[in-house]
Amino acid sequence: MKINMPRWFYQLASPKWSYDIMGMLLPWFAVAAGLLLTAGIIWGLMFAPPDYQQGNSYRIIFIHVPSAILAQSCFMLMAVAGLIGMVWKMKVAHIVAKSAAPIGASMTVIALATGAIWGKPTWGAWWVWDARLTSMLILLFLYMGIMALYSAFENKASGDQAAAILALVGLVNIPIIKYSVEWWNTLHQPATFTLTKKPAMPPEMWLPLLVMVLGYYCFFGFLLMARTRIELLERENKSGWVTTIINEQL
Amino acid sequence: MGYFNSFSEFLDMGGHALYVWLSYAITLAVFILNLLFIWLKKRAFFSLAKRQTKREQRNL
Fold first, then answer.
1. Nearest to B53 among A48, A102, A250 (CB)
2. Cβ contact A107:A113 at 8 Å
3. What is the DSSP string of A159-222?
4. Which pLDDT score, from 0 to 100, does residue B1 have?
5. What is the pLDDT, as a whole number, of residue A187?
6. What digits encode the pLDDT tens for the residues A198-227?
């Protein structure tokens, strides 16, 4: 079976084309991330009203929720990129997946750390073995396993393959994280944003949160492209276009 | 100061200063580390590449 994909899909398979297009997009993502994150943090910390139950400790939400969303989005992106890499033998896709892993892991760390800190004044405990928290911890272990696989193989192609398979298998954890607050009795509150319902919060609270989520996505895009570009240089260091870039730097 | 009457009230976060500021500090630190790692990776790549190019030029 032959699936015809749009032209840009095949262009993405070219390391040089990908390097160039990411270099063009990079500054825009940096500016957007800087503006959105600055606006979101000032709005969330100073201008959003305090919560009627939690007071001001709820302001952790503005960094906790976006990092938890990103941790999961990044995992899905990594799994899809790994799958594309396996199906179309596309090296660039594997490099994107490899670059996504440490960024996703760091987002998971932020979500877990800020969640623990938020849990202390709200639930009275830093950590509880709750379904949501446990499945997020498993997500962190999956990220670490995938990062280990990428570096464990002498043959880079075998590492790409093994990591992509673990990412695809690990994908089952994503719906578990999402529905953990509905399937199990949990301390964790349900999702803030859903596609079908209006947020339970007033707009003065969820608007800055939305700005933060968008800012996080832009920052993630920036980090992912910057990492991918360096990884492309390292993997392609024998090819002509990389030599040209190196000579330009001399 | 938005919902706060003074800067010290803002810093105090209604008694939750430790939790709020620790969370934001950790997040900022992880963001900066992400940027730092990328910068170091880039620098390492180009310094190695430069050394290799110089060696090759000597051997010509």
1. A250
2. no
3. HHHHHHHHHHHHTTHHHHHHHHHHHS--SS---S--SSS--SS-HHHHHHHHHHHHHHHHHHHH
4. 65
5. 77
6. 777 888 899 999 999 999 999 999 999 999
Q: Which residue of B has its CA nearest to A222?
A: B35
Q: How many helices (H) and strands (E) does chain B have?
A: 2, 0
With contact defined as beta carbons under 8 Å apart, do A98 and A150 qualify?
yes
Give Cα A93 to chain centroid, integer Å: 16
- Which chain B residues have any C-beta within 8 angstroms of a chain A C-beta? 1-4, 10, 13-16, 19-20, 22-24, 26-27, 30-31, 33-35, 37-38, 41-42, 45-46, 49-50, 53
What 3-state DSSP class applies to A236?
A: coil
- Interface A-B: count of C-beta contacts within 8 A: 89
Task: Report the predicted TM-score, pTM, of the whole model to 2 decimal places.
Answer: 0.92
Q: What does the pLDDT look like over B1-60, one tens digit per residue?
A: 678 888 888 988 988 989 999 999 999 999 999 999 999 999 999 999 988 888 888 887
Q: Chain B: give the shortest CA distance to residue A227, in Å.
A: 6
Residue whose pair of structure tokens reads 């963001």 in the numeric block: B31
Reported confidence tier of residue A2, pLDDT bands at 50, 70, 90: low
User: Which residues have a Cβ under 8 Å from the Cβ of A195 and sit 6 or more positions away?
Assistant: none
Q: What's the Rg (C-alpha) of chain B?
A: 23
Cβ atoms of A162 and A149 closer than 8 Å: yes
- At A55-66, the pLDDT tens digits run 899 999 999 999
